[in-house]
Write a structure and sequence with these properties.
Helix content is 43%, strand content 19%. It is an alpha/beta fold and 366 residues long. The structure holds nicotinamide-adenine-dinucleotide.
Length: 366
């Protein structure tokens, strides 16, 4: 078992990575959570695949009830949070109650926000079941939902939410056997982002292990998840609430969030991140912040693992720039971009709009 620890102001929590952990989670949680009453919020695709082994692992001391959540960006909204808050009441959870989020990043973000809000905050454990959620979303305490933008402007990603750290994060790479290849690739998108921020050797690992990773081989997955989570922990431990260095984790995301909600592009989060990474690197290249070799290396790994590096159809760059202005990091309508540089990444409020426009054009916008 790999046992990591996250230290943030106000406490610390374990991150456990172990093949075959799922049926033992109930037993492990006994040492972590004092109460024995909780609600398991399942991704509705995950419950029929892995729910039974998880629920059977809770001994008769536990009173655990379960509800389903449809994992889609459309259901990642306040109404879903309202429904789950009602479910908490119906389940009789009090302030000692526990919410276990079992699913991908959508389930973790939504159920995490419910845990942050119910009775002003109850305990949460994250049990991620996608590669993307294991390497990124489940660790660090960001929770939230999307909001509809004004005037029918589409969906604003993660515009309502809270920082709410879990009591533990429990990962079983064996559950990734049922995840389709497209979703495994999406997880690699966030790993490539981690590599650009803090550890270029991760690109070598992805290159050498890609066949095993995409075949969901536990050893390859465990190695990848371990390295990626260590990077994520080192960033959040330095900046729990994203006042500084943690913003680096948004590399590529201001671009990604503008394209992810566009239905005709049919992009999943990790795919949008891959295109966003290329756009951000293109800006950095034009501003002389990064060597062309590094951009080429990143793009070649993105393409090698089968992630998109361009939009599949031409979207007006002006429309994408307009959506970017609703990004959480924007200040007074001014874009704040995280860009790769020779030290990893840095944050910029002053990137000229024509540079952003050309970056969009390089990835296929018009
Ligand atoms: N909180 C954070 O720090 C953070 C970081 C990165 C991304 N995110 C958010 O995470 C979301 C993306 O997460 P995701 O990529 O995990 O997507 P997701 O939650 O939509 O899951 C992807 C798909 O995989 C299915 N699935 C999940 N586990 C499975 C399994 N083991 N076997 C078979 N199918 C399974 C789901 O039903 C879904 O269809 C986005 O909304 C993004 O904004 C949050």
């Amino acid at each position: 078992m790999i046992d990591l620890n996250v230290s943030v102001p106000g406490g610390s929590y374990p991150v456990m990575i172990e093949a075959g952990l799922f049926p033992q989670i109930g037993e492990r949680l006994k040492d972590i959570h004092g109460g024995r009453h909780g609600l398991v919020v399942f991704d509705d695709k995950v419950r029929p695949l892995h729910g039974q082994s998880l629920m059977e692992g809770f001994s008769s001391e536990w009173n655990m009830q379960a509800v389903d959540l449809e994992a889609s960006e459309a259901s990642k909204r306040l109404e879903t949070v309202g429904g789950l808050l009602d479910d908490c009441l119906v389940a009789g959870l009090d302030r000692g109650g526990l919410i276990a989020a079992v699913g991908g990043g959508i389930t973790g973000d939504v159920a995490g926000f419910v845990a942050a809000s119910y009775m002003r905050g109850i305990s949460l454990v994250q049990i991620p079941t996608t590669l993307l959620a294991m390497v990124d979303a489940s660790v660090g305490g960001k929770t939230g939902v999307n909001l509809p933008l004004p005037d029918g402007g589409g969906i604003g990603k993660n515009l309502a939410g809270a920082f709410w750290q879990p009591e533990a994060v429990l990962m079983d790479p064996l559950v990734l056997k049922t995840l389709d290849q497209r979703e495994l690739r999406c997880g690699l998108g966030e790993c490539i982002k981690h590599a650009m921020i803090a550890d270029p050797s991760m690109l070598d690992l992805i290159e050498s292990d890609r066949v095993g990773i995409l075949a969901a081989e536990p050893d390859c997955l465990e190695r990848l998840i371990h390295q990626a989570v260590q990077i994520k922990i080192s960033v959040i431990e330095n900046d729990e609430r994203e006042s500084g260095v943690r913003a680096s984790l948004n590399l590529g995301h201001t671009f990604a969030h503008a394209i992810e909600p566009i239905g005709s592009l049919d992009l999943r989060h990790g795919e949008a991140v891959a295109i966003g990474l290329v756009a951000a690197a293109t800006c950095a290249l034009e501003l002389g912040m990064i060597e062309v070799d590094r951009v080429d290396r990143m793009r070649s790994i993105i393409e090698l693992v089968g992630l998109p590096s361009r939009l599949s159809s031409p979207i007006p760059a002006a429309q994408l720039i307009q959506t970017m202005r609703f990004d959480k990091k924007a200040h007074d309508g001014q874009l704040r971009l995280v860009l790769p540089d020779s030290n990893g990444v840095s944050i910029h409020d002053d990137v000229p709009m024509d540079v952003v426009q050309r970056a969009w054009e390089v990835v296929g916008a018009v």
